């Protein structure tokens, strides 16, 4: 069996490629959101605290 045929067979996942790769893609999106969303919230909170602190100095 050629290398290309082996890769094609592996990527097809026995006919379940749509489910497997879809689930993998969804999982990666959820994991990325679990990192990105808290980081964005922390960034916004730090900005809000900084603005509050600067307004108290005036």
Can you describe what's shown?
- The chain has 58 residues and is an all-alpha fold.
- The chain is built from two helices and no strands.
Structural class estimated from helices and strands: mainly alpha
Strand content bin:
under 5%
Shape: rod-shaped
* Helix fraction bin: over 70%
Q: Largest sheet, if any? A: none
Which descriptors apply to this entry?
58 residues; mainly alpha
Indicate the topology.
Layout: H1 3-12, H2 17-57
Task: Summarize the structure in short.
By secondary structure, this protein is mainly α. The chain has helices spanning 3-12, 17-57.
